[in-house]
Automatic annotation (TrEMBL), chain A:
PANTHER family for the chain: LIGHT-INDEPENDENT PROTOCHLOROPHYLLIDE REDUCTASE SUBUNIT B
GO BP field: protein-containing complex assembly
Protein name (record): Nitrogenase iron-molybdenum cofactor biosynthesis protein NifN
Pathway where it operates: Cofactor biosynthesis; Fe-Mo cofactor biosynthesis
Family annotation (NCBIfam families): nifN
A Pfam family recorded for this sequence: Oxidored_nitro
Superkingdom of origin: Bacteria
GO molecular function, one term: nitrogenase activity
Domain Nitrogenase/oxidoreductase component, chain residue ranges per copy: 17-424
Record bears the keyword Transmembrane helix: no
InterPro entries the record matches: ChlB/BchB/BchZ (IPR050152), Nase/OxRdtase_comp1 (IPR000510), Nase_comp1_CS (IPR000318), Nase_Mo-Fe_CF (IPR005975)
From TrEMBL, chain B:
Gene Ontology biological-process annotations: protein-containing complex assembly
UniProt pathway: Cofactor biosynthesis; Fe-Mo cofactor biosynthesis
Alphabetized GO MF terms: nitrogenase activity
Matches recorded under InterPro entries: Nase/OxRdtase_comp1, Nase_comp1_CS, NifE, NifE-like
Pfam families (alphabetical): Oxidored_nitro (PF00148)
Domain Nitrogenase/oxidoreductase component: 44-441
PANTHER family according to UniProt: NITROGENASE IRON-MOLYBDENUM COFACTOR BIOSYNTHESIS PROTEIN NIFE (PTHR42956)
Gene3D superfamilies: Nitrogenase MoFe cofactor biosynthesis protein NifE, C-terminal, Nitrogenase molybdenum iron protein domain
UniProt protein name: Nitrogenase iron-molybdenum cofactor biosynthesis protein NifE
Task of the protein: This protein may play a role in the biosynthesis of the prosthetic group of nitrogenase (FeMo cofactor).
Alphabetical keyword list: Nitrogen fixation
Length: 458, 492
């Protein structure tokens, strides 16, 4: 079991809020507008974080709860917000994400929404409204993301028994970048299958420049595809947090699913590729076999830089698992593993002793490791400890191109190996000195536990 | 003396056991085998000379030639300096076509030396000739002499153009250069009865600093380590040492013998790789020093230190032994003496399957044989194809070699560790052997290799080995609940 002590203080939080995760998922649906049901600030902070990470205009709205509506009930604000968004942005879907404020107040949002959509059916028209209940006081990005996808499937997907042998549903995890999704799509397509990826941020947050002003998301999974999601040959859910939406889809349409906890690493990528070969009945294409061989070579060239390294990872549960498993595959040891939230069963599978905590815990425990792995907020710990930070997950606001970095499948793992190794190489700037190598130093206490001298590379 | 004459004298090396066994006529032919065009590997004489001299830290090393000689080879070794980093800077005259056609080389060289002196003010400049400048007849020695007078510091010509021969010859020519131009040019005022030189020690990755404090604890004073972490002045005063230890024998044996002839400094060959060899080296140094008049208790103090350090090393190796015991090693090294490596690996319970004796003398071979107990295990030169076969067939758990052969191992998905000059980890002394074994442990037990060796789940045409069946379809069955919500009825 992960260590999860009750504490009264979080220092340098690792988590982002659950509604942020839900809004993020809605951003991967075509023509969607996430609507945070809460006070203005709930949205503004999330928006700023999104903009800093993606360097894009992010469509996201707020019900702007005020003192009066907080006391008397927020249904009016919700209605007004939906109608205003409908008029101004004309989205295909409004994704309502509740926040701690309105959840604490405790309203019946489902009933409110049902009432609004039936009373104002004329005004709302064909715009779909989905409700994800995502209070900030529970969960983190992965839970919010999972809740939004589950809610979307429950609200939109039609019951069906039709099966389309050419279509494959892929439920993508929150830590997949635009680059990961593009790689995943190409891999599925190489087997002659048409992937329906949900959520699909690859069209909406991939840093393209459209030639007109679009107030909602552009790109993303089309609503029509979500409605017909059951008409596929199979569903692949990536990451433990996508089990809930996969279950929802199965309950609704009977579509069977395979849950792959990660697509990073040789064996993990093999599992997906084997599954695709089975589903399609086609051989593995030469291009994919070549990528596999490239990854093998990257593992050979890279393992020198991983062997014996001690790594501290702080991340959302599935991402934590992905990174810790990756480091174990490469011969490095995750000596510090901090999870943002306690509930995911994947934490049991992380090859390290997991603590549920924050970046303060990371900083406290990580002294002496070779590499910190976390999102950009880990930089303070990195600066104070003098240990390089390898940025993964969300947010990454102090580096460019986060959405195009890959870690999934053969090519993503290959990239990840090179990026991590390069980070380690760049950090090895200590040149050996007579003092650092002196065998007589601290002989009384340390001669058995002394770390190996720092390697030097040019 | 012409280059040809100098090379001829170098080949007449009475201290070299290989040479002693030769007949008069074969000896005259020299010891470097003629290279086979189209089938040659390894560095040239310039490379060899630069390897030996460049770790001298406070000297500016100026390469006189077109760009490739220096431009393609600089900053590629990991000798460490405790002082100046001038040695790491790359200086070359970068001769252009016009320079060569118009004969501007000498003038350009002089100006280059002037610029270096003005900018960096080094205690000395080493000027390396190269094939082209030797071919067009630039008189590097004359320019150096003139520049030395003009700028008031030694400007040393290193005449080892690439075409002169192999890397090993270049090593020897570098030793000659030190003898002719550097050693003995400065008289030290701080000589002790325990001054020693270590010849052929490069201080790669600072590894000699694992050893130096031990010698200093015994009161042994390192007059000069040539060339690792050496200052120009250290080498210039090296003739006042009481004993020489030579580490990489085939390279600088001539230097050691001439120093004995000229200044009466006795020498012995030793190695700092492996526990027993390190101990033997310390004993050897002390014995020579006592013979030269150092206090006799040096030997007892050395034994005490050796006992202490060996115990600590064994203690640190113990936890590694279970992880290494029985692992089979292919040792394919040139520079590092194979027998000292063999001993070191045996110390950890590993089994040496084959070892290269390519650059070894007969004495080395005898020692390697003694360590291995079977001649089958020695090989002069293994073809890459044969090495690859051995690795693929799983006859070997790890190959230790230089970086040139690393990809034979890696492409055969076999652990490999760099034990040659390009390596990134210090392996000398008692600490170094522990470090080496740690590195072997990390390599040989890396999880990457089993993962890579597991076959792909499909054949070479991409067809699945185990076609299996597509994941089962879930039976589509719904049941209406009282409240009208559709729920899945089967509990899978």
């Amino acid at each position: 079991m992960p260590v999860n002590e009750i504490r009264s203080l979080s220092t340098n939080p690792l988590k982002s809020s659950q509604p942020l995760g839900a809004a993020y998922a809605f951003l991967g649906i075509e023509g969607a507008m996430p609507l945070l049901h809460g006070s203005q600030g709930c949205t503004a902070f999330a928006l700023v974080l999104f903009v800093r990470h993606f360097k894009e205009t992010i469509p996201i709205q707020t019900t702007a709860m005020n003192e009066v509506s907080t006391v008397l009930g927020g249904a009016d604000h919700l209605e007004e917000a939906i109608l205003n968004i409908r008029t101004r942005a004309n989205p295909r879907l409004i994704g309502v994400c509740t926040t701690a404020l309105v959840e604490t107040r405790g309203e019946d949002f489902a009933a409110d929404l049902a009432s609004i959509t039936s009373r104002r059916a004329d005004a709302i028209g064909d715009c779909r409204v989905v409700l994800a209940e995502t209070p900030d006081f529970r969960g983190s990005i992965e839970e919010g993301w999972s809740a939004a996808v589950t809610a979307t499937i429950e609200a939109l997907t039609r019951q069906t028994t039709r099966r389309d042998p050419e279509r494959l549903v892929v439920l993508a995890p929150s830590h997949f970048t635009v680059g990961d999704i593009e790689t995943l799509r190409q891999t599925v397509e190489a087997f002659g299958l048409t992937p329906v990826i949900l959520p699909d941020i690859s069209g909406s947050l991939d840093g393209t420049v459209p030639d007109r002003w679009i107030p909602s998301t552009y790109g993303g999974t089309p609503v029509a595809d979500i409605e017909a999601l059951g008409a596929a040959c199979h569903c692949v859910a990536v990451g433990e947090h996508m089990r809930r939406p996969a279950e929802a889809l199965r309950r609704k349409t009977g579509l069977a699913y395979t849950l792959l906890p990660t697509l990073t690493g040789l064996a993990a990528a093999d599992r997906l590729v084997t599954l695709l070969a089975r589903l399609s009945g086609r051989p593995v294409p030469a291009a994919i076999r070549r990528r596999r061989s490239q990854l093998q070579d990257a593992m050979l060239d890279g393992h020198f830089h991983f062997g014996g390294r001690r790594i501290a990872v702080a991340a959302e549960p599935d991402l934590l698992y992905q990174m810790a498993a990756f480091f174990a595959d490469m011969g490095a040891e995750t000596t510090v593993a901090i999870a943002s939230t306690p509930d995911s069963p994947i934490l049991e599978a992380v090859p390290a002793e997991v603590t549920v905590g924050d970046l303060g815990d990371l900083e406290e425990r990580a002294a002496g490791v070779d590499l910190l792995v976390s999102h950009a907020h880990g930089r303070q710990a990195s600066e104070r400890l003098g240990i390089p930070l390898f940025r993964v997950g969300f947010p990454i606001f102090d580096r460019l191109g986060a959405q195009h970095r890959r870690s999934a499948l053969y090519e993503g793992t290959r990239d990840l190996i090179f990026e991590v190794a390069n980070t380690l190489i760049a950090a090895d700037h200590h040149h050996p000195t007579p003092e650092s190598l002196d065998p007589l130093r601290n002989r009384e206490t340390l001669h058995d536990s002394r770390p190996s001298p720092e390697p030097r590379r040019h | 003396m012409s280059l040809k004459a100098r090379i001829a004298t170098l080949f007449d090396e009475p201290a070299c056991p290989t040479n002693r066994e030769k007949s008069e006529t074969t000896r005259k032919k020299g010891c470097s085998k003629p290279l086979t065009p189209g089938a040659a590997a390894g560095g040239c004489a310039f490379d060899g000379a630069k390897i030996v001299l460049q770790p001298v830290t406070d000297v500016a090393h100026l390469i006189h030639g077109p760009l490739a000689c220096e431009g393609n080879s600089w900053d590629n070794r990991h000798a460490a300096s405790s002082g100046s980093d001038l040695w790491r800077r790359s200086f070359t005259t970068d001769l252009s076509e016009l320079d060569i056609v118009m004969g501007n080389g000498e003038r350009k060289l002089f100006k280059a030396i002037r610029t270096i002196v003005e900018r960096h003010d080094p205690p000395a400049v080493f000027v390396y000739s190269t094939c082209v400048t030797a071919l067009i007849g630039d008189d590097v020695a004359a320019v150096c002499k003139r520049a030395g007078e003009r700028f008031g510091r030694p400007v040393v010509p290193v005449e080892a153009p690439g075409f002169a021969g192999s890397k090993n010859l270049g090593n020897k020519l570098a030793g000659e250069t030190l003898l002719d131009h550097v050693i003995g040019t400065v008289e030290p005022d701080d000589v002790t009865p325990c001054d020693v030189n270590i010849l052929g020690e490069y201080n790669l990755v600072g590894e000699f600093w694992f050893v130096k404090p031990l010698l200093e604890e015994l009161g042994i004073r390192l007059r000069a380590v040539i060339p690792g972490d050496a200052r120009y002045r250290d080498i210039a005063t090296a003739h006042r040492a009481k004993a020489n230890m030579i580490v990489c024998s085939s390279a600088l044996i001539t230097l050691a013998r001439r120093m004995q002839e000229r200044w009466g400094i006795p020498y012995f060959e030793g190695s700092f790789y492996g526990i027993s060899d390190t101990s033997a080296a310390i004993r050897g140094l002390c014995r020579l020093l006592v013979g030269q008049g150092a206090p006799a208790d040096l030997l007892d103090r050395a034994e005490a230190l050796i006992a202490r350090e060996e115990a600590i090393a064994w203690q640190r190796i113990a936890p590694l032994k279970p992880r290494l015991a029985g692992k089979r090693v292919l040792l394919n090294t040139g520079g590092v003496k194979s027998w000292s490596m063999v001993d070191a690996l045996h110390e950890a319970g590993m089994e040496v399957i084959r070892t290269s004796i390519k650059k070894s003398t007969d004495e080395d071979k005898a020692r390697a044989l003694a360590a291995l107990k079977d001649e089958k295990h020695l090989f002069d030169r293994l073809a890459p194809r044969e090495i690859y076969r051995m690795l693929v067939d799983g006859e070997v758990d790890i190959m230790l070699s230089g970086s040139r052969t690393q990809f034979i191992a890696l492409k055969a998905k076999t652990p490999w560790l760099d034990v040659n000059q390009e390596r990134h980890h210090p392996y000398a002394g008692y600490e170094g052997i522990v470090e080496l074994l740690k590195r072997i442990d990390l390599a040989v037990n890396s999880p990457v290799f089993p993962a890579l060796r597991a076959p792909a789940p499909w054949d070479e045409t991409g067809r699945l080995m185990d076609p299996g069946v597509p994941p089962a379809e879930v039976v589509h069955s719904f049941r209406k609940f009282a409240n009208g919500v559709l729920e899945d009825a089967d509990d899978c």
